[in-house]
């Protein structure tokens, strides 16, 4: 019989104390696992929602003109920019190292057209990409379905007296108005929107675009790296990150992580106190047993080894059960907290971290009780009976 066997036999004989120790540490580990896994799941939920707010990178032609009216492009005249972006150059965007972080690439051409003697801004887009990217747009009617259709901003529809189903002639070409944007309070209210090839034809600018909006997927995207890589891929353009969107995203997620870790630290501290008090009580209850061990020739290091073996064994069991309990709690709570994108993934690092944390907390909380037990003199311990 060795020290490990003695420690395991002690745990088997005192099942009630074993259960209390496991429960004390299990609650703390389960709370940590729940908060961290919930934080990861809600971060993914936040990413999903925030990314649906639209683009966070803007690519425009290099220009010295600071008079801008839409997305960095001057649309006051026929000549929009001195060196427009060519469509074939956009294929380089999907070749950058961080291309996997790019959710959508939305090219646009913007220019001025004349309707009934009034000049308005017309924008050509890829309807499938653009109307998915601008999810805040609410349309009376429907989006573009073919090249002969037109969607108008609320302000321009009111100024021109346009209604759904009206035919609109622009540069000798006829469009049918299929949708009117509800007021957005932005420059989108003053736009006429049609398909990209049709507007390029009207403006006489086939094969080029005025600007490109890019939506990046993840909250911790290396936005500066993306900008640098895009600038290298498109050297004749200006790539700008909408830092306000990115920084707001990072700040919100960071606050949630700090809050979760703070709560987890408090719960783990309480778990450590429970282990400490329980182990001290166990040592005091086992004065006779420890005295006999010492009388039989056990050294102080043997007593410390015995107590610490028990603590590590109990902590490992509590860590494993706490991880399972935490994941179960997250699975139960996630549908109520993440309605649009609930996703719970197995994270081996979290499992390893839970076991390591449980063993570390249990061991640290048991050091003093183990040293206290090792300092007992055999004669004093047996005299106390």
From TrEMBL:
It is found in: Cell membrane. GO terms for molecular function: transmembrane transporter activity. Residues 262-378 form the ABC3 transporter permease C-terminal domain. Keywords: Cell membrane, Membrane, Transmembrane, Transmembrane helix. It holds the Pfam family FtsX. Belongs to the ABC-4 integral membrane protein family. Its main location: membrane. InterPro entries: ABC3_permease_C, MacB_PCD, Macrolide_Exporter_MacB. Residues 21-205 form the MacB-like periplasmic core domain. PANTHER family: ABC TRANSPORTER PERMEASE YTRF, MEMBRANE COMPONENT OF TRANSPORTER-RELATED. The lineage of its organism: Bacteria, Pseudomonadati, Thermodesulfobacteriota, Desulfuromonadia, Desulfuromonadales. It is a multi-pass membrane protein. GO terms for cellular component: plasma membrane. The chain crosses the membrane at residues 18-38, 258-283, 303-325, 345-368. This is ABC transporter permease.
